Structure formats: structure tokens, C-alpha cells
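User: Sequence in, structure out. Go.
Assistant: Echoing your sequence, followed by the C-alpha cells.
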Amino acid sequence: MEGDWTIFLHYPRGLTPKALKKAMGKVVLVERAAVPDLLTVKRLTKSLDTGYWVEGDNPRASTDSREYLTLSGEEIVGRFLLRYRRG
């Protein structure tokens, strides 16, 4: 929700293969190599031969793998820890 705070555990070099497997279906932090320094929140939905597929929870307003295809494991740089609902 707007105004909520989220906390992620950040891995600057990307999640390990074991951590990626555990994060499947969960919310992750993405930093695409094509757009460095821009962190986005996506859901890790599948692992393919070509990389990892992520999608936004709002498909009509999200830029995600449906547009830029798969990501490398190094581009998935964090895992969701908690959400704090303000107010």
C-alpha cells in the first residue's frame, strides 16, 4: 500500500542459487544490468534455462519480464523481509 515501508535483505552481487530457489514465488529486489542503480520490487515466478522470470503484482502498470525477458541471478539482489503498514 502507498506509504508502507518494506525491508529487504540486500545482496549486491545477487542471490545464490540456493537462495533463488527458496525465493521462488516470493517478492524480490531487482537491479537490472541495463538500468544500474534502479531498484525495483518484483515477484520471482519461474526459473528457465535462460534465466529467471519476474513479474510485478500489477500487470497493467508493471515493467517486468514480460517486457525485458529473463534476468540473471546477479540481477536479483535482495529478498523481502517485512512490510510495515504505517498509520
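User: And one key feature?
Assistant: The chain has a mean pLDDT of 93.
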